[in-house]
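Record 1 of the preview.
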Amino acid sequence: MAPERTVIGVDIGGTKVAAALVRGRLPEPGARSRAEVETPEIIDRFTMLTDATSAEACLRGVEACIADLEHGSGRVEGIGVGVASMVDFAGGRVVESVNLPLTDLPLRDHLERRFGVPVVIDNDATAAGIGEHLYGAGVGTSDMLMLTLGTGVGGGIISGGRPLRGASGAAAEIGHIIMDVNGPKCPANCPNHGCLEAYVAGPAMGAAARVAAELEPDSALGRALAAGRTIDSRLLTHLAVEGDVGAIAVLERAGEYLGAGLVTLSNIFDPELIVIGGGAAAAGELLFAPARRVLAARALPPARDRVRVVPAALGPDAGFVGAAALALSELFPGDATA
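->
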């Protein structure tokens, strides 16, 4: 059995920094289901709003989260960090960010000097994918994809049981699959038009809901707009779950775009499993069902006949559990054969 380790997992997002002190071990080789895997224990957690006013302010917040958890915890053996940025994994650097004031930052070296333990950093969606692969919906799979639908669309790729990061560590920018070269401008710091993110990220769903509200003032969405409510993806999901036809139609359209993106991913990667998480995925089957229909109708065989599309299993803890899983798997790889 792999030895138990105490690590800190940190999830740095554009809205909040969430961190947890975690005690856990790598799963036994050959585990085929979640029932055979010991989920890491969350000993303590700390969350704060991200201070995006400057790189220095953002770093102070990250350090405060880690320091709070480290204090009185005994010996922390390592730190894993998932950050909503493009990351040079081998160099431990944040290359570029959209919603964070972090660019060309040697984050790994900075945190190792500050806390005196080994640190590993990666893109936040890749870290979430590692967490789902080791402890969540992806247990027992060798080839899986992770999509996180939130302010943007993040991605993680597990290939042959290992994260696929690409030559520079910046692979899995799934949100920037181009759906329509003449489509809307990508909302991220991207030179393209018609990216998947422009159709299925939370803000894109909210924008589509506002258009629907304006076109159908007698609908529940239209009445909400007239009442001065904020029309966003959360309200859209709430009204759809309550049965509003207009809201359901908006989610179905978003699901179809999501499905078209999954077709491309299925054709390229031939995954066993596609796991979808993030706040904007809260619509569940209202979003997933149309995506599966498009995937089944348009993807190439034999991949389309095998791949499953499922919701993420780790819930709101996915970010820092994924970061902790990143630390366990990358800093202590020998544990897997212990």
